Amino acid sequence: MRRIEPWSRHWSEAHGEEMTQSIQQGLLADGITMPLTKLCAWFGVLRRTVYYKPTKAAPKVDPRFAEPIKAMIEQEPSFGYRTVAWLLGFTVRPRTPLVE
Questions:
Q1: Measured in whole angstroms, how far is the alpha carbon of residue 86 from the centre of its chain?
Q2: Residue 47: which of 39, 59, 58 has the closest Cα?
Q3: CB of 86 within 8 A of CB of 93?
């Protein structure tokens, strides 16, 4: 059986969760119990792709910064983030060169 490398975008990796769970539910409706691990092995899907639940942290917005920034952007929409930060007195980290 061909091993799927973690960096590859194989079809079964991208759709593994939906495919294996729908097959498992269909078999269960027919009265056949099949472990998810066996289904993953049959279809060449990594188990971690089936069990993975993506989580995204909620953005942390501080109202004392958000309100003046929004007001400045509404007043002058052409200003970039460095100009807005400078006009409001916020410190912006200087750019670091990628290549020396």
A1: 32
A2: 39
A3: no
Residue type, 78: S
* Three-state SS at 8: coil
What pLDDT, in 10s, does the model give residues 5-25? Answer: 444 445 445 566 677 778 888
Q: List the Cα angle 63/67/71 in 5-degree steps.
A: 170
Instruction: Supply the DSSP string of 14-51, one letter for each residue.
Output: HHHHHHHHHHHHHHHHTT----HHHHHHHHT--HHHHH
- How far apart CA 32 and CA 22 sit, in angstroms, is 13
pTM over 0.85: no
Give the number of other CB atoms < 10 A from CB of residue 81: 11
